[in-house]
TrEMBL record:
Positions of the UniProt region annotated as Disordered: 72-95
Protein known as: Uncharacterized protein
Length: 197
């Protein structure tokens, strides 16, 4: 991505909507077409899903909603701030590492933990790798992720390769939250609890 190109959340969202309007569908296609980083595309796509301008058809595949198509065709500006009045309450999608990681998982067809770190981690996240390893383990045990049989080769000669995962229980935008005392993952989208003992 060239410096200065497509900077700003609102501009990123318009760019992604425009690409979807031209028939692109997958994250790989968007990355190949847009002068944006994959991480910026994931973030913009997540915001568009929250705004209900884009819907996720299946893992890694997206399309404009009727509302998104109307917005794009009307040439309306995109505001980068939150929708609706500020109430002082925390929204459903807090900007935490696990929320960003969950959003990245939902946007990817298949992924390794390294893929998610690249897309979701920031310098302020501390030990993001350890946090992600624990979270992925919980998601697998609770039935949200499946471990695929094939591995991606690692860089070290003694490496057994990296595990590949796929989301198999996608209940919505909000990341499942672990409740340590009860040893359950609480689904904030459906209100269900899933044991991960």
């Amino acid at each position: 991505m060239a410096p200065g190109l497509l900077e700003g959340n609102a501009t990123h969202q318009i760019a992604v909507m425009g690409a979807l309007g031209r028939g692109l569908r997958t994250l790989d296609e968007l990355e190949a077409h847009l002068p944006m980083s994959r991480r910026a595309i994931v973030k913009a796509s997540g915001r568009l899903v929250e705004r209900r301008y884009v819907e996720r058809e299946e893992a890694g595949t997206y399309s404009l909603t009727a509302e998104g198509t109307a917005h794009l065709e009307a040439g309306l500006p995109m505001k980068s701030g939150p929708r609706g009045p500020h109430t002082g309450k925390r929204g459903p999608n807090r900007d935490t590492f696990r929320q960003r990681a969950w959003s990245a998982m939902r946007l990817s067809h298949r992924f390794t933990q390294s893929d998610i770190l690249l897309l979701a981690a920031t310098l302020d996240d501390g030990n993001a790798a350890g946090n992600l390893q624990r979270y992925v383990h919980l998601l697998v045990r609770a039935g949200y992720l499946a471990v695929l049989p094939a591995r991606v080769p690692g860089s070290a000669e003694t490496s057994n390769g990296h595990r590949v995962y796929r989301v198999v229980r996608d209940t919505g935008e909000r990341a499942p939250m672990y409740r340590e005392k009860a040893r359950i993952l609480s689904d904030l989208n459906t209100g269900e609890d899933f044991p991960c003992r």
